[in-house]
Design a protein that fits this description.
Length: about 450
């Protein structure tokens, strides 16, 4: 999930985007560029010391007119009041960055890791939780949401999606967990990648994403194509949908660079060397993505969490992985098979002016639109579409669903293109019964 523009104090962050062309073959995650960010310049206030005139002694120079002293006292009190954080500003909120402390960190690969951040100022009612009651424990308020991290050294910010809570986790403590990767040249990811346990990070939020529940409506099928760390929003949506509906199904197609993101299996055959490529290709069928079963052999820290979700949801959650190092990227046929496996019944036509359930109205939409911004006008029994969701690096999204588009400083969905656009043209039922959402 990405924010369109973040402001930190007097600094303005402007994210710029170059549209990646649709590649003829599935892209390797190693060659997908991350979003470029440019920090706008700002005026620095120059402070000059004027020389004292006249022959006043230091004591005389320090003496103040009583009226001036009173004015300074009032002004100083006002400045203190305005600049001293209130209790609201000390806990997670959408206006100011607040301090968290990294309490744990687990390496997954040389460049990826999980870390947990705890608030320095406890809040019994975090903004991302519902209010608990004796009959209903607290739970996450939104099916899809993120927070901003700031990089204080260069004053930039970026959105990151927390991993869903594990069974038995005390939500009221307000701790958040993240799956991150250090990207060469990435200001924010490099900064976070060098922070260890005990270090301070600054967060702002929460920022709700698409209202998944209202778009899904009476339908029960989600196919989520995730690239790399884009699996975090996929896990959020999977938990929200599968916990809410016993008859829902969720298929995760996870594209990763190497299998160690999922499991530590050193003897997995890798990509053939260039000298043996042609002979290997003639002898062997094209490698295919594989379905993740149970148990996962030697799971990574993130693999354990996916395994726990498989245990909880059983056959309602299907997970397939495509691995760059094994040349098993996802193709259009794999996405089509996942959609067909859902065996979703034909959905009734949406009302022509219903914005949540018509693809054409999503082109100018922002991922971070307020809840209820697009009211449904369908008849009650007709509401809902199945969802194909795509999350990951910019080039990954462009290849599989078409590029997002910047309009007036806001990043919008843009038209559906790429592999998903071709599937919509080839399969009218897919175009009629499914929405495509880019994160």
């Amino acid at each position: 999930m990405r924010g369109s523009q973040s402001t930190i104090g007097a600094h303005s962050l402007v994210l710029t985007s170059s549209l990646t062309r649709i590649l003829p073959h599935p892209p390797s995650l190693r060659f997908i560029a991350s979003c470029q960010r440019r920090l706008s310049t700002h005026q620095r206030i120059k402070c000059t010391n004027g020389s004292r005139k006249g022959g006043k002694s230091p004591l005389q120079a320090r003496s103040l007119n009583p009226a001036l002293a009173a004015a300074l006292l009032i002004g100083g009190s006002a400045i203190y009041y305005l600049t001293t954080p209130s209790s609201q500003q000390k806990v997670l909120n959408q206006d100011t960055f607040v301090p968290y402390t990294i309490t744990s960190r687990e390496a997954i690969s040389p460049t990826s890791f999980l870390f947990t951040a705890a608030p320095q100022y406890p809040n019994p009612n975090p903004s991302f939780l519902t209010t608990s009651s004796p009959s209903q424990p607290a739970r996450w308020r939104y099916p899809l949401w993120s927070v901003e991290f700031k990089q204080p050294e260069v004053q930039i910010a970026r959105n990151y999606t927390p991993l869903p809570p594990r069974d038995g986790e005390r939500l009221e403590e307000g701790t958040l967990r993240f799956y991150l990767r250090s990207i060469p040249g990435g200001e924010m990811s490099t900064y976070l990648g060098r922070l260890g346990v005990g270090r301070e990070v600054w967060l702002r939020g929460t920022h709700p994403g698409f209202d998944v529940a209202s778009r899904l409506g009476a339908q029960r099928n989600v196919v989520f194509l995730a690239g790399g760390t884009g699996v975090a929003p996929a896990m959020q949506v999977a938990k929200a949908v599968l916990d809410s509906h016993a008859d829902a199904s969720f298929t995760l197609l996870w594209a990763i660079r190497s299998r160690e993101e999922l499991q530590q299996v050193p003897d997995v055959p890798g990509r053939p060397s260039a000298s043996s490529w042609q002979s290997w290709f003639r002898r062997s069928p094209r490698p295919q993505p594989t379905e993740v079963g149970q148990p996962i052999t030697a799971p990574s820290p993130l693999g354990r969490e996916l395994e726990d979700m498989k245990t909880r949801y059983g056959d309602r959650l299907r997970i397939h992985v495509g691995v760059d190092d094994e040349s098993s990227q996802f193709r259009g046929s794999h996405i089509a098979a996942a959609i067909q496996h859902a065996a979703a019944p034909t959905t009734p036509p949406s009302a022509p002016d219903c914005q949540p359930h018509n693809q054409k109205f999503h082109a100018p939409a922002s991922e971070f639109e307020p809840a209820g911004a697009r009211p449904c006008t369908c008849e009650a029994e007709n509401r809902g579409k199945n969802l194909l969701m795509v999350s990951g690096p910019e080039g990954f999204i462009s290849h599989y669903a078409g590029p997002k588009v910047w309009v007036g400083g806001v990043q919008t969905q843009g038209a559906v293109g790429g592999v998903a656009g071709e599937l919509r043209r080839r399969y009218p039922a897919f175009a009629a019964d499914w929405l495509v959402l880019k994160l």
